[in-house]
């Protein structure tokens, strides 16, 4: 009963469980009848949804890709906004943010497998550090348009968020940059295969 009365623990659990929902996998199965876990890169993120569904239904692929980005981002914002409405301390909000990203990247519903965490990271960052996130989004958009490499654009955008936060919002109101670094590390870590392919010149472009 003590557990059920502890709002922080309930928020942590909700953040992880909600973050674990594989929206890309669900959307692709329901609307395109394809299993993105067994096709393309095997990721549950928007890029793989776009890449796999595009092979059979190009017009649907873009819609599902956009829907995946939005829903994956909302996984990060939903629990945060509820917690903020209840005047939850900023330290708890950052813990919620970390757990939401962990849920997406290591989903309990997929045997602790998952996506790369970019959209969910965007969702939590836009709530907690909006100005650096806007700057990072601009960096991502520019790089995506010029480079047309999803992984590289995402990593450069994430780097833009972190650097901007250090310049404009040092301390993140919790006396430490650790929560932001943890989220960034998780996303970078999940992109190691992409980084290896980038170094080898084998990473595919999104056309």
From the alpha-carbon coordinates, what is the Rg to the nearest angstrom? 17 Å
Distance from N terminus to C terminus (CA atoms, Å) equals 53 Å
Ranges where pLDDT stays below 50 over 5 or more residues in a row are: none
Mean pLDDT, all residues? 86
Portion of residues in beta strands equals under 5%
What are its keywords?
207 residues; mainly alpha; 11 helices; globular; lipid biosynthesis; EC 2.3.1.275
Describe this structure in words.
The structure is a single chain. With 207 residues, this protein is mainly α. It has one domain (2-200). The protein has helices spanning 2-5, 7-19, 23-32, 46-53, 58-85, 90-105, 118-128, 130-147, 150-168, 178-190, 192-200.
Summarize the structure.
The protein is mainly alpha-helical and 207 residues long. The protein is built from eleven helices and no strands. 72% of the residues lie in helices and 0% in strands.
Please describe the topology of this protein.
Blueprint (H helix, E strand, L loop, with lengths): L1 H4 L1 H13 L3 H10 L13 H8 L4 H28 L4 H16 L12 H11 L1 H18 L2 H19 L9 H13 L1 H9 L7
Helix pairs in contact: 2-5, 2-6, 3-4, 3-5, 4-5, 5-6, 5-7, 6-7, 6-10, 7-8, 8-9, 9-10
């Amino acid at each position: 009963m003590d557990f059920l009365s502890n709002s922080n623990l309930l928020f942590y659990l909700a953040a992880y469980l909600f973050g674990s929902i594989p929206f890309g996998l669900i959307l692709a199965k329901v609307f395109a009848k394809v299993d993105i876990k067994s096709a393309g890169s095997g990721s549950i993120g928007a890029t793989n949804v776009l890449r796999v569904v595009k092979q059979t239904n190009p017009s649907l692929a873009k819609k599902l890709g956009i829907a995946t980005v939005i829903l994956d981002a909302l996984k990060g914002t939903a629990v945060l906004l509820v917690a903020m409405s209840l005047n939850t301390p900023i330290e708890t909000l950052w813990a919620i943010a970390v757990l939401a990203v962990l849920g997406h990247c290591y989903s309990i519903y997929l045997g602790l497998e998952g996506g790369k965490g970019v959209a969910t990271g965007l969702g939590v960052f836009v709530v907690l550090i909006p100005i650096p996130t806007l700057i990072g989004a601009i960096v991502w958009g520019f790089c995506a348009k010029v480079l047309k490499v999803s992984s590289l654009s995402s990593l450069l955008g994430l780097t833009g968020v972190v650097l901007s936060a250090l310049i404009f919002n040092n301390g993140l109101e919790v006396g430490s940059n650790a929560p932001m670094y943890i989220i960034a590390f998780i996303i970078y870590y999940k992109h190691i295969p992409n980084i290896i392919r980038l170094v080898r010149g084998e990473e595919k472009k999104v056309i």
